Amino acid sequence: MKRVGVLALQGDVGEHVTMLESLESVVVKVRTIEQLESVDALVLPGGESTTIAHLLETSGLRDVLGEKLRSGFPVFGTCAGLILLSSEVLDGRADQWSYGALAVSIRRNGYGRQTASFESPIEVKGVGSVSGVFIRAPRIVAWEERVEVLATLDHGDGRGEHPVFVRQGNVWGAAFHPELAGDPRLHRLFVDSL
Fold first, then answer.
1. CA 48 – CA 80 distance, rounded (Å)
2. Is 155 among the catalytic positions?
3. pLDDT, averaged across the chain
4. What is the tally of helices (H) and strands (E) in the chain?
5. Taking 70 as the threshold, does the pLDDT of residue 159 lie above it?
6. Which of 16, 155, 177, 187 is catalytic?
7. Do 100 and 83 contact (CB within 8 A), yes or no?
8. What tens digit of pLDDT does each residue of 46-105 get?
9. Which range (18-22, 86-90, 116-120) has the least confidence?
10. What percent of the chain has pLDDT over 90?
11. pTM of the prediction?
C-alpha cells in the first residue's frame, strides 16, 4: 500500500487527510524532511500560497521537495498547491517563487476575491461530473502542449474555457478544492496512478 503525504504546514490539511484515508491510503502529515522522505507521493493543499512557500523555506522542505519533483516524484496540488507547482505566477509578489513542475501560467485569485467564491459542476475526463469548489481560486491562463487538460470551466465572464484540472507526468493540479466536495474520485485518480 502506498504512503501518501499531505503537506501539513498551512491550509486545508485535514480535509485531504480525511479524503485519502477514505481510500484506505496510509496517510502521513508532512512537516519534516524525514516525513517527506517516507512517502511515495504528496498532496500540496489549498491555503495561502505565499505563506506555504515561506513555511517550505523555513522548514527546510523547499529544496528537498524541488529535487524530488525533478526526479519524477508524484505530487497533487490543489488551489495554492497548484500555484506552487506552476511555472509562472503572473500577479504574485516580487519574492514569490514556484517549482515550475507544471508548464502553466497562473493568475492568483483569477476568478475573484473571497466574496466571489463559487461551486460549479465540472466534467473530468475519464471520471464524469464532479463538484468544483472555487475559493479565491487561481486561473490557468496559459499552458504548454505537454500539459494534459483533464477538465475545463467556462465561468461565464466572456473569457471562454480555462483548464481547471491538469496533469503533466506525475504532477497533477486542480484550481479548485476537490477535498471540500466530499467526492473522493479525483484523489482516487491520483492514488491509482502511483
1. 6
2. no
3. 94
4. 6, 12
5. no
6. 177
7. no
8. 999 999 999 999 999 999 999 999 999 999 999 999 999 999 999 878 888 999 999 999
9. 116-120
10. 84
11. 0.95
**97 within 8 A of 88, measured Cβ to Cβ:** no
Q: Which domain holds residue 84?
A: 3-192
CATH code, domain carrying 45: 3.40.50.880
Are the beta carbons of 6 and 13 closer than 8 angstroms? yes
Here the cell at position 108 is 492568483
Count the domains in the chain: 1
Active-site entry in 15, 16, 155, 179: 179
Q: Angle 49-58/61-70 helices, nearest 10 degrees?
A: 100
- 16: annotated active-site residue: no
Among residues 104, 68, 65, which one has the least CA distance to residue 83?
Answer: 104
| Catalytic residue selected from 15, 16, 79, 187 | 79
DSSP string, 78-95: ETHHHHHHEEEETT--TT
Active site residue 79: yes
Pairing state between β 128-134 and 139-143: unpaired
Residue type at position 20: L
